[in-house]
Write a structure and sequence with these properties.
CATH class of one domain: Alpha Beta
Number of helices: 9
Bound molecules: adenosine-5'-triphosphate, magnesium ion
Strand order of the largest sheet: 6-9-10-3-11-12
CATH superfamily of one domain: P-loop containing nucleotide triphosphate hydrolases
Order of helices and strands: HEEEHEEHEHEEHHEHEHEEH
Radius of gyration: 19 Å
Structural class: alpha/beta
Number of strands: 12
Shape: globular
Low-confidence stretches: 1-16
Helix content: 25-40%
């Protein structure tokens, strides 16, 4: 049943709830304050655009959420409880998946294997001695998820390095869906993609939100911002300069905020 691989639809009440709540989050690198007093709610079923000029602090904020960096100030709540996201593994346990353009998948492994890295299905042929991978089963499972999302890959046995950037991005997002992520962070997912590939990634992003997943979407592309986000947070020199509903703003205002940090 295909529905089994998808996150459950949220109830109306849950749809409003914040999945993550950052309060006063700061990150210092030596003398540089890369993040300063960031308050931010990341909500289920919503695409939050994280915008800002080069060096504004976007990737640093993502790395704090993904357990790569520890904040030097502030607190993070997940589902209403204060958490310490001490490592990327801890972030995965909390249902936080980060998709980077090229680092998300292992290039010299087939598509199906990439779906199951660190979560391989096996059975013991001889207990504690010979363990066999359930390749067929993993392939069927990956194929089902890709079919459900209307992602066409020539074969699940080809290595990921023979696929296009857009196909890789689609697989990385499909994997996050397969593992029922609660929050998916996309750091510049459409940079260097062809136009049809960009459209596919934007569609998948909306599908994720439609399934009740919280999505953080980083981009410098204003068309993407206007097409895919529900809300926007603008960072400027490590501070949050503004938070807006996408429907209530326009390209000029967003660009002005990114450049000046002021309304
Ligand atoms: N590991 C690090 N050590 C020291 N300084 C860092 C480190 N990582 C980031 N910085 C600094 O923190 C600031 C924010 O960087 P960050 O990578 O978060 O920016 P960004 O908003 O993602 O920019 P871009 O749009 O160019 O990707 C920059 O001044 C950067 O030089
Ligand atoms: Mg960055």
């Amino acid at each position: 049943m295909t529905a089994a691989v998808l996150a459950p639809a949220p109830t109306a009440a849950a749809a409003d709830a914040a999945f993550l709540r950052l309060a006063g989050v700061g990150k210092r690198f030596g003398g540089l304050l890369a993040l300063d007093g960031i308050d931010l709610e990341i909500r289920r079923g919503e695409v939050l655009g994280l915008l800002g000029d080069n060096g504004a602090g976007k990737t640093t904020l993502v790395k704090v959420i993904a357990g790569v960096h520890q904040p030097s100030a502030g607190t993070i709540e997940c589902c209403g409880e204060v958490v310490r996201i001490a490592s990327p593994d801890r972030a995965h346990q909390l249902g936080i998946e980060t998709v980077f353009q090229d680092l998300a998948l292992i290039p010299n492994l087939p598509v199906a294997d990439n779906f199951f890295i660190g979560r391989e299905r096996t059975f013991d042929l001889v207990p504690r001695l010979i363990r066999i991978l359930r390749n067929r089963e993993m392939e069927r499972d990956a194929a089902e998820t890709l079919k459900r999302l209307d992602i066409h890959i020539p074969s699940l046995r080809v290595n990921v390095d023979s696929l296009s950037g857009g196909q890789r991005q689609a697989i990385a997002i499909a994997r996050a869906i397969r593992w029922k992520a609660s929050l998916v962070i996309l750091d510049e997912p459409t940079a260097a993609l062809s136009v049809p590939e960009q459209t596919k990634v934007l569609e998948l992003t909306r599908q994720l939100a439609g399934q009740g997943v919280a999505v953080v979407y980083i981009t410098h592309n204003m068309d993407d911002v206007l097409r895919v986000t529900d809300r926007i947070a603008v960072l400027h020199r490590g501070r949050k300069a503004a938070e807006l509903r996408t429907a209530e703003t326009d390209r000029n205002e967003i660009v002005h905020l990114i450049m000046s940090g002021r309304r």
